[in-house]
Design brief:
Blueprint lengths: L19 H4 L9 H6 L40 H16 L6 H14 L2 H9 L13
């Protein structure tokens, strides 16, 4: 087996030497003797502008509307009434507004809720009562 060879470490390049004037963090002020002799005021030192007070901007996130909690349920319905759901789906499709069975049922519930008490009783009496539970397999 060949002996493992060590890879020489890569050296970082040395930083270039900086002059003392560049290294200094304080700005230097050179006032010539001629300016002082003439009686002219020296040029003002460069100063930083006064720090403005910190302004905090509060960004409000848009409030998301909470989705309604869904409930899954099952029920028994006569075959003739179930076929009416299919007919209503086709009818809605022909009106360029396709609908699902659940949407049709929810629309029917809204229509029943909007009825007066007398109309609701009339609609309920028009629907025969059926035995609840799973239907027998035929």
């Amino acid at each position: 087996m060949p002996a493992s060879k060590k890879v020489p470490a890569v050296k970082k390049p040395a930083k270039p030497a900086m002059s003392p004037a560049v290294r200094s963090s304080k700005p230097t002020r050179n006032v010539s003797k001629a300016v002082v002799k003439r009686g002219l005021p020296p040029t003002p030192a460069i100063t930083k502008p006064a720090a403005s007070p910190a302004v905090h901007v509060i960004v409000e996130k848009p409030v998301k509307a909470k989705k309604p909690k869904l409930v899954r349920d099952s029920f028994t319905i006569p075959k003739l009434e179930y076929s009416v759901l299919g007919e209503l789906k086709q009818r809605a499709g022909q009106l360029n507004s396709p609908a699902k069975k659940s949407e049709l049922l929810r629309a029917g519930i809204k229509a029943l809720a909007a009825m007066s008490d007398a109309s609701l009783l009339g609609a309920l009496q028009a629907v025969p009562a059926i035995k609840t539970g799973r239907p027998t397999k035929a």
